[in-house]
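ESCALATION

Customer reports they have been waiting on this structure for their group meeting. Please prioritize. Original submission:
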Amino acid sequence: MNSSIEEKLTNELIVLYRTTGEEIGYWGRRFLQSVKRNGGYATVKRMLKPRTPLQRAGLDVLLDAGRPDLTVEAIILKSEYKQLFTQEELKIASERLGEYGKEVSKRNKNRDNLYPEILEPGVKYVEGAKKRVTVNGYERNSSARKACIAFHGCKCSVCNFVFEEKYGEIGNGFIHVHHLKPISLTNTQYSLDPVNDLRPVCPNCHAMLHRKNEVLSIEQLIRIIDKKSR
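Update from on-call: job pushed to the front of the queue and completed.
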């Protein structure tokens, strides 16, 4: 085994982590920890096995952003790394990459445009670019939305409502995403952390958060609900 190539792979995967964070907004910290602790070679060998739900969540963010080129499968298929892996492993990577391309095309065709917060995004987590719809709105990045849901889940952060529990399969994965810092107040572009800057909320609670001129905090709305229920 060529240790210099293994080291190069490790370094490229660290760069991949940073690129994915900067361009897509998804910071796969467990992935980075594994690369630094176990090395890139061992990490990739493990990831070529069936994906865990957590690994699948990160993959979904990349596919939602239309970036299969940022997957580990795309990296190890580069000519300089092929010698590190068996033909069977390379075949798995190649087949997966082909499926990723099909999945990206499918997602693009079925993009959910029901709500202004899910307008067609660019590839970076840059928010606040004004976009003409019927009136001036603010562009929302659906990859940021996906990353928020991957971390926080689909339960409303205010009232704990889960659409799938109420409506079954048709409600699976449905939720609004609330910006803790309203984009309309920034007057510019800014980069955001989908874990710390966004929260999943149901449409009712989302509307109530924005009911007044000054946006309520999630904690304030929870207190209003608690007071009402007494």
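Sent to customer with the following note: Strands lie at 126-127, 130-132, 136-138, 176-179, 190-191, 198-201.
Escalation resolved.
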